[in-house]
Amino acid sequence: MLGLPKLHEQLLSPIPVKDCLEMGINTYYTTPLNLQELSNAIVPALESHQVAPGDSVKETILSILLAEDNLVNQKLAVKLLEVAGHKIEVADNGEIAYEKYRGRLAANTPYDVILVSSCQQS
């Protein structure tokens, strides 16, 4: 099993690139992000699902994992993404998200997109 840093270590430093690559993560950003940085983060992931000419965008259904601890943000994000036709799974924290991610990898059904909110530091 991949040895991830403890939570307090993650808050002090980013996850090493080698660990990210081993988990299949090719890009990640730290928050806060401005609008341009957010666009640079999301657009390539969405563009990787090419739509053939004549296909409806509604036919492109993404499997999305949302890691968000705020219930209001969860509900808003889920509603927006479901209206767009995507399938959403919600994790209340990073630990649960990681377990869901590992489960999908083991089942050979990885998520198309993983959205993670920033963690609150006290």
Give a verbal description of the structure.
- This protein is of the alpha/beta class and 122 residues long.
- 42% of the residues lie in helices and 11% in strands.
- The chain has helices at 7-12, 17-22, 35-47, 71-83, 94-106, and strands at residues 63-67, 87-91, 113-116.
- The protein has a 3-stranded parallel beta sheet.
- Residues 7-12 have low confidence and may be disordered.
Concise summary:
This protein is 42% helix and 11% strand. The chain is an alpha/beta fold and 122 residues long.
What kind of oligomer do you see? single chain
Poorly predicted ranges:
7-12
Helical fraction equals 40-55%
Structural class based on helices, strands and sheet pairing: alpha/beta
Distance between the termini: 29 Å
Total number of strands: 3
User: Strand sequence of the main sheet, in spatial order?
Assistant: 2-1-3
What is the string of SSEs from the N terminus onward? HHHEHEHE
Shape: globular
Overall pLDDT score: 76
**Major sheet details:** 3 strands, parallel
Compute the gyration radius: what is it? Answer: 15 Å
- Helical stretch tally: 5
